[in-house]
Amino acid sequence: MNILLLAAAEAAGHEEHGPTLLGLSAEGWVYVGLTIFLLLAVFYAKAPQKIAEALDARIANTKRQLDEATAIRAEAEALLADAKRRSAASAGDAATIIAQAEAEAKLVLAKAESDATDLMARRSKMAEDKIAAAERGAIADLRAKAADAATHAAQHIIAGRHDAGADKPLVDRTIAGLARIN
């Protein structure tokens, strides 16, 4: 308890020794000035009313922005729904186009196969015709060469075996055979 008494005595003995005016220190005058300013702001300048008006204007501006945002969101949702609908329609159209293209591709492929088969048949027929013509030409050439060779051989054989004396009885027999009536 003695310690508390000593602390209270020391506190009472240590007063501020700064300049004072009308019994108030500098800190006291700051409080007085602030109080006067606040009273003037409240009663003369009507600061609370102006603050309320500014807040009301800000609230109205915020509500307007929220309404615009809501309208923009509704518009965006409508555009999204429209885009989804168009996408679904496009997907259906794409499926139809793909099916049509596949059908046309099958027809083109079948026609190409048919044309290729016809072309191969025509070319095969042309090749067979050329081969047959070449065979006929080769056979005709071979017969001509064989006839030439037989003619030359017959000439050599006849020339070697027959002379003018051997030809005379043959010519006489032929002439005698002409006189007979067939």
Characterize the structure shown:
By secondary structure, the chain is mainly alpha-helical. 0% of the residues are buried. The radius of gyration is 68 Å and the shape is rod-shaped.
Jot down its keywords:
mainly alpha, 182 residues
Helix content: over 70%
Radius of gyration: 68 Å
Total DSSP helices: 4
* Class from helix and strand fractions: mainly alpha
The average pLDDT score comes to: 83
What is the tally of beta strands?
A: 0
Compact summary:
This protein has 182 residues and is mainly α. Helix content is 88%, strand content 0%. The protein has helices at 2-13, 26-43, 47-161, 164-179.
Please write out the topology.
Elements: H1 2-13, H2 26-43, H3 47-161, H4 164-179
